[in-house]
Amino acid sequence: MRITGLEVEGYGVWSGLKLDGLSEGLNVLFGPNEAGKTTLMQFLRSVFYGFSPERRRYLPPLRGSRAGGAVEVVAEAGRFRISRYDNPEEPGGPDLLTLAAADGTRQGEHFLKTLLGNIDEKTFNNVFAVGLRQLQELAALSDTEAASLLYNLSIGLDRVSLVDVMRELAKSRNRILDAEGGACQVNELLAERERLQAEVERAAASARRYTRLAAEQDSLDREVLRLQEEAEALAQQLRVLDLAAGLRDRWQRREALRGELSALGPTAGPSEKILERLEAVRLRLQSHQRRLDACKAQRGQLGREAADLKINGALWRLGPRIEGLQEQQQWISSLESRIEQLELEILELESQWEGHCQRLGLGGAKAPALPAVSPSALAALRQPARALRRRLARFDKARQEAASARQASQSLAERIKAALDARGETALSEAVDRRGSLVAQLRRRAQLDQRLEKMDQYRVQLEDQCRYLLDRQLMPIWTVLALGAVFVVGVVLLMAGLFMPKSITGSLGWLMALIGLAGTGGAAVLRLAMERSNARRLEACQKQINMLQLQAKQAREERDALDKQLSGEGPVAARLKAAEEELAGLEELVPLDSQRQAALTQAELAERRAAEAERELEAARRRWAAALAAAGLPQDLEPKQVKELAASFDQSSEIQRKLAMRREELDQRRRELSGVTSRIAQLAAEANVVVPNGRPLDQLREMLRQLGEQEIRRKRRRALRRQLLKLRRRRAKLEAALAKCRRRRRQLLHRAGATSEEQLRRQFQQYQQSAAVRHELELLDREISAALAGQCSEEAIRECLEGTAGDTLDTRRNHADDRLQAITRKLHDRLEQRGRLREQMSLLAQDREALLKQLELSVVEKRLDEAVHRWQVLAVASRILEAIRRTYEQQRQPESLKAASGYLRRLTLGRYSRVWTPFGQEALLVDSAEGRSLAVEELSQGAREQLFLCLRLALARCYARRGASLPMILDDVLVNFDQKRAHAAAAVLRDVAAAGQQLLVFTCHEHLARIFKALRVDVRRLPDYAEPGLSAKPQESPKRLRKGRPDPDRPTHRVVAGPEAAESPDIEHSEQPQRPPAAKPADPAGYSAWQERDGIEVEACFGEDAALLAQPTAEPSQHASERSPDEHAEGAEAA
Amino acid sequence: MPTEPFRFVHAADFHLEKPIGGLSEVPEHLRDMLIDGAYRAAERVFDTVLAEEAEFLVLSGDILHYQLTGPRGPLFLAEQFERVAQRGIAVYWAGGRVDPPEAWPHEIKLPNTVHLFPSGRPEQVVHQRDMVPLARLLGASRVRGRAIRPAEFDPDPAGLYTIAVVHGRAEAESLRSRAIHYWALGGNHARTTLYSAPHVAHYPGTPQSRGPAQTGPHGCTLVSVDQQQQARTTLVPTDSIRWHSERLVVDESTSRAQFEACLRQRLGALTETAGTDMLICWVVAGTGPLLAALRRGNLAAELLAMLRSEAGQARPSAWSVSIGVEPPAVLPAECYEQQTILGDYLRELRHYQMNPDEPLELENYLSPQHAAGTLGPLVAVSDAAMRERLLREAAVLGVDLLTGEGPGP
């Protein structure tokens, strides 16, 4: 975009100013001080970017015209007129902006931004519309996009800026971990970690607190125990005192009785004894008389009985003979038994003989003919027979073992199968596994139930506690009243201290006020503290309830999950028990299964042994048959038969011999029995004892029985005789005892001094009276003992009662009661204190604060690890890129700095050769011709302004390459330049303009105007703003100068667009169409190549300067020498 | 020497003072589980002792830090000890780094069935069943700064089954030479068996894993000893929440929809088979634009939100902790051959990879004061694996930045 004209309707000092026909190149506007140059620059800024608050100081116009104006511009899209006026109806409101094309069509505000190349106002003010003040501030650039054009390198793929990358890396790195220790993520995390560690330590202090509380609790326990013992002792004392009070009357009665007893004096003890003895004698007399009568009656009865007993005399005489036969009774009986036994033996021997003969195959018992076997033949048969017997026994044993093992295996298998069928299972191991798994699940299920039950109980406790705490939130009325009273008293004291006359309060006024203030504040603080304490406890309780509910929920979920997995119904315990029983039942089958397997194996082994034994048996049979044949015996004989045959002869002889002996003995016994029988019969006849059809033994027994009866009768008669004799002696004794008793009674009466029993009894009544007193005493003793009932001793009661009046007893009791109440209160306090301690300990035991902080700490540490790791990755990338940066720093710089270096070299006449920036830093260094790098601050003011001017020119060119070609307005920026450098600057400006950059240069210095004139630049003088309707006019030949063509009447000069020539072919090609054809310089042979190497421009019109510029290389000097004489002349004129 | 068969439970490293960590953000619904995870796992250990009707319980150290747990930890343990004591089951406990026997608070009484081995030289206890010696336990609590001394543990001369209870690291050969029937070791949070025949040296690991590095089931060990004194170890899982790392591979053709489907399928499979709450770290490897999108943009966060919303709130929960991208071991060769900054960058990086002794000197990015303080050791690259990982991630970062595809670090 280029400005072709402007029209200021009213702006500051200007009214009706009109400038038209502005050149597309360099335009110099000359005017004295206060001519309105800066106002004009501000006008342009206002038209392009609006009336900002700082520019509104130019409004309203001094001359009263309408505030605003218009600027005519030409751009690629055509010609446009931009007019902006202040809104008169709404001062300070939105401007009235109009953007009209040449054909009258209007565009929106956005199009103005397009025309301005999207350059923001700040950049425009610091790069394109620059006054001396902006020029002197490099820092003004730092916040603009222009800074990046100065300092950045763009050398990455896809034009990624390495500086951007490194800067972003550094930013990111510093965000994570600031190298200088500023605010950053890691520092925040470290601080957070430190804070959490401190909190964890604080939370961990609860362990020490718990220890302290436990120690306090122990101390309290001991104190409670001591107080309980004291209370018990006092209670005992009270009981003793109560007992003493209750027993006081009886105690006194007992003491009175003891006095009365002592007053009666000793009673006549002997009289009592005599009375008792007399009574005893009387009783004995009566007894002896009764026994004597009984003795007489018994004698009569015994005499009658003796007369009734009769005696058989014949039998009694034959007694010795009968008793002699009695001794042979055993023999007779054994004789009969032996006869019977012999008969049986004979029968048995006969049957045995018959069986023996039949077994040997010898027919009946009447034909015994036993074959004889020689001992040698028997010896030859013994070995084969023994072998056959062994084989046979082995075979039988193996067969039996196999059968029993097989049977056992089958039995076990049937048992296992029956057990599995009963449980619906087929395989034992799988069934055990399934039941085991089921039992484990059911156990877990039961544990969950128990846990849930515990949690429910605990939750109920917590809810109760919660309710209690909720109730406690509303403070008790007595507490409120107490606090209120303290508060009111405090207020009263405060008011009294402050407002009561000093005459009343004296020097205590301030003290009262202070006490009142303390009381008021204390009451308020105490109330607040109590409320907060309750709230904290309630919150902790609710937190525990929530936690408990969550845990219960999780447990229920786990229980539900288990329920889903567990099929079946009924109580879990029952199911678990059933499952355990089933599992136990199945596990009991496991050993059976092992036994079954073992039995199977055993059966197979036994069968194999049986088969082998059978083969060996057959061989043994064959050997036996051969041996029989050799012995001449039948081959079908068994070894047993052969053996029996060998032994048969001796056995037969033995049987026959026994049979003969038994028969002979039988005959002899029968003869002996007959002799004894005849003797018995004879005796029975002599003794008149008749036993019809009796056996001898029966007759003998009858005689013996009757003889026994006679003996009994004789003995009875002798006994009766002895009893009669005894009774006679007894009667005599009783009669003597009666006489003795009578004598004794007389003696007793005589000893008591009494003549009769009546007198003796009167003496005894006195004795009975003292006995009653003693009895009452005993009763009282018992009552007192019963009342004490082991609670205390009589000594304790005596101690209380004796020597103590009733009122003293009551006083002691009241005193003890008071002490007991005090101790009870103290005990109650300690118990409450202990309860509070236990509550605190319980809260501490449930406290999860430490774990919560640990969790937060782990989160912070995790974030810290991640941040540090990220920082490390970024740092590694930065380190690698820095290594690359060092390589690139000296090789490539931003194109803007390269262009600025060229301008600076020309402008300073070669004094400074290069301006550059360290990589990644927003700082400029200037290389002097001597090779020194100087910071901007080290330059003089003039050199610094020259540097900054060069930078702005380079920046404008850079923007132009990016498509934002805007006119530059320079307001008196050359004022501090010396003559030579001002001339060089004018030449640079002219060449820059010739390269396509429109420049509007304002100056108030005539020498500068002359310099520009000397360079054939369009120089216009600004009109006096006091003359309305004036327009700026060129000082000379404006038409020619506007077109930028060289004046044929003046020495000509060559203008070379160095920077363009230094660019890459692509860029140069793309930018060339924008340049005005008139400014395109000629390019003599070889000159462009030189420019490409150094990237500088050469102003050839100053011979002396050109010589300076030519110093670094030989070629420039060569070019300088090739300049035309006209150019030399022009340079001299300008100088 | 034949012995009566018996079973016992071996556990260690409860660390009741440590919640489950490794998360950079804590989901609210898992907060209680993370806090109480160690307690729940410990309770399940005691449940196992009761359910299996074990003869005794052996604890090999690092059960709890008394100061950090507060009174809750010792009270909890005392309650659990009382549970097993009611069934007549003994507990043999050797202290570790954090639970020396002298640190147990005296005001909390332990049941008589709990035997706490003293520090220093091993102490011998003979466990009896029906007044008949069943096993001999030799135990010693750990002494700070001292390694295990296998020479102090001798087998029983009469051949009684001997269990050595101790906390710390030891060489397998030095333990094997002592001919102890069972080394009940602690101090390794991963379940490890140093050797299993003819004798056994075993670390049961922690009952509850606490970080993404501790994946898989954790629990206690049920040891069954037969008549020939041969021990058989069985893991009984006790963890209430389990870490899992799932690696997925994508290629150039993998689309987002396919990747989401793959994630859902894997998540469903994990949820079905796990049976317990899980914390899942997803690691994506391979090549392709999806991997780059995961690395640079918000895709990872979106997928993470999707996974958490689908399975993170369910019971049992499968909470996706992160979706990370595994940096490739080697980038394509053409990247290294570029004559660009990227090429220079990768070649310089390769130089560091091939010269592991060349220091990275990351401390230079700190001020000298900070480098000498806590930050210096914090950022120092200590081991080779970490260095290699850093270089690989830096390579990927450089590619992202220098090709202009990344959003910036």
End-to-end CA span of chain A = 34 Å
3D shape of chain A:
elongated
Round the Cα radius of gyration of chain A to an integer and report it: 76 Å
Structural class of chain A: alpha/beta
Q: What integer is the average pLDDT of chain A?
A: 78
Low-pLDDT sequence parts of chain A? 153-159, 362-370, 1036-1135
Q: What is the rounded distance between the termini of chain B?
A: 68 Å
| Side-by-side strand order of the widest sheet of chain B | 4-3-2-1-11-12
Strand content of chain B: 15-25%
Arrangement of strands in the largest sheet of chain A: 2-1-4-5-6-7
**Based on CA inertia axes, which overall geometry of chain B fits?**
elongated
Mean pLDDT of chain B: 89
The H-and-E topology of chain B, N to C, reads as EHEHHEEEEEHEEEEEEHEHHEHHHHH
Task: State the helix count of chain A.
Answer: 35
Summarize the largest interface: chains and residue counts.
Answer: A-B, 73 and 64 residues
Poorly predicted ranges of chain B: none
Question: What do these coordinates show?
Answer:
The complex is a heterodimer of chains A (1135) and B (409). By secondary structure, chain A is of the alpha/beta class. Chain A has a six-stranded antiparallel beta sheet. Chain A has a six-stranded mixed beta sheet with strand order 8-12-13-3-14-15, sandwiched between helices. In chain A, strands 9-10-11 form a three-stranded antiparallel beta sheet. In chain A, α14 (428-473) packs antiparallel against α17. The longest helix of chain A is centred in the first third of the chain and has 80 residues, at 185-264. In chain A, 27% of the residues are buried. The model of chain A is unreliable at 153-159, 362-370 and 1036-1135 (pLDDT under 50). With 409 residues, chain B is an alpha/beta fold. Chain B has twelve helices and 15 strands. In chain B, the strands form three sheets. A six-stranded mixed beta sheet of chain B has the order 4-3-2-1-11-12, with helices on one face.
